[in-house]
Amino acid sequence: MRNHSLSLVNAYYLGQLIDVATTSSAQRTLQMATLMKHYYRIAIRFSKYQALLLKTLDISAGAKILSG
């Protein structure tokens, strides 16, 4: 829950920064598109990380069962 709240706060302030730092709607659109690509890559990497973590835990549990 804490990470979700922090993400929402960060997104809010990032939006505020983009509104202040850009002078045209074209600049805002370009910045938002760049950010969307960035967050998409993060989401994909996170899901792959979760899958690898679960696989590691399964292997670890299996090794523990076999060892006694």
UniProtKB/TrEMBL annotation:
Protein name listed in UniProt: 11466_t:CDS:1
Organism: Funneliformis geosporum
